[in-house]
Predict the 3D structure of the following.
Amino acid sequence: MFLQNPDPLRPPLKLMGPRFVGLAAAFYAALLVAAAVLGTLTSRNVFALGDRPVFDLSVGVAIACGTVISGLVLYWLSPVLRKISGELAPHLVDGARKRDLVLVSVFSGIGEEVFFRGALQPLIGLVATSLLFGAVHIGPDRRYLVWTLWAAGAGFLFGALYLWTGGILAPVTAHVLHNAATFLLWRRSRRKGFTETTKNDVVVGGEG
């Protein structure tokens, strides 16, 4: 997912389009099937939502608000993270449709939570599942370690939510909303930046 454009003279490869959304849907559907197989083999309902759906949904929304705000603070405090964001944006959010960003957020949030929290966590425990979750979010070089650590921390948080609520509704809600809000805010900030740059270019050109 996180690919670098190998040739700076060529336009960046756009990943977040209809084809990518289709591939994401297929991948996370396969992940759900794998989770269901594990659940069948261990006699567990990996799709159990929990006993208090309204409460769990509310908790998921609240946690998502907290993670999004924390992510924004980390972004502004970390020059490395801002640089990585600028490199990835052309591949992920620049020119992407809101619908595609939301769909990928839904697919990833549901697929990953059902597999990692619903299927794996009861088998190998919170710590191992969270570390594994972070490990699959490894980037192409050491600068992406901050993203890996963030993913591991999110894994602990979502895993704790799963233990507390007894189902996947709260972690799924938090995961989906976090991803969607992050993508949409990222897209908005990029579009705003392009608009301001264009206005400045017009003003500078007009003064000449």
